[in-house]
Structure formats: structure tokens, C-alpha cells
Amino acid sequence: MAVADLAAQGPNACESLSAIGACQAISVTFLEQLFGKLRRAGLVDSVRGAQGGYSLARPATAISLDAIITPSMPRPKPTAARQRQRLPARAARTDA
User: pLDDT digits over 19-62, tens only?
Assistant: First the structure.
């Protein structure tokens, strides 16, 4: 909903994370993490300074829901089962 809030402000509008957080009832700390990921994905631009904040990097109609969700999802961590699958056959055997 935070990206939708930016889109509702119109093209080239810049909004601070504190304003988005107040409107959406989301903590600024969480928004900082989220918007950092969205910025690295090229979905939002950041503007520094007193009148700074975030704006959409491209038109709202060009941004899909998948484009927003994918960078914000945590990356899966390797599990023990996945690590065992990567071992060579000889290393996995215990009978010598």
C-alpha cells in the first residue's frame, strides 16, 4: 500500500517516509528497509534534503504488483537438505 500511496500523489510527486507511514500506519523503520529494496530494484527514486522523500521511478501504470513484491520478499536461506544435495556422492557416503 505504500507504493500505492506514492502513485496516488501523482507523477513526479515526492513524499517522505514519515508521511507515508502516518497515512498507512506503518513504522518508518520498516518503510526504510522496504524502500531501500525498491530503490535498488529501480522502482522508486530518493530525493535528499528538507523537501526530499521518495517518488516513483517510472509511471505507475508501468509498475506491476509482481515488480513490487519480488524485491521485498526475503531471499530463501539454504536448508540442511539443500546443502546435502550439493555434496558430491563420495562425500555424502559414510561407509568406507
Answer: 999 988 999 999 999 999 999 999 999 988 888 899 999 998 88
Rounded distance between C-alpha atoms, residue 44 and residue 81, angstroms: 37
List the one residue out of 51, 1, 8 whose CA is nearest residue 31.
Answer: 1
Q: Is the pTM of this model over 0.85?
A: no
Phi, psi (deg, nearest 5) at residue 58 = -150, 170
* HEC sequence for 18-54: HHHHHHHCCCHHHHHHHHHHHHHCCCEEEECCCCCEE
| CATH number of residue 18's parent domain | 1.10.10.10
Give the domain extent around 74. Answer: 2-92
Cell of 13: 510527486
Look at the chain and report how many structural domains it folds into.
Answer: 1
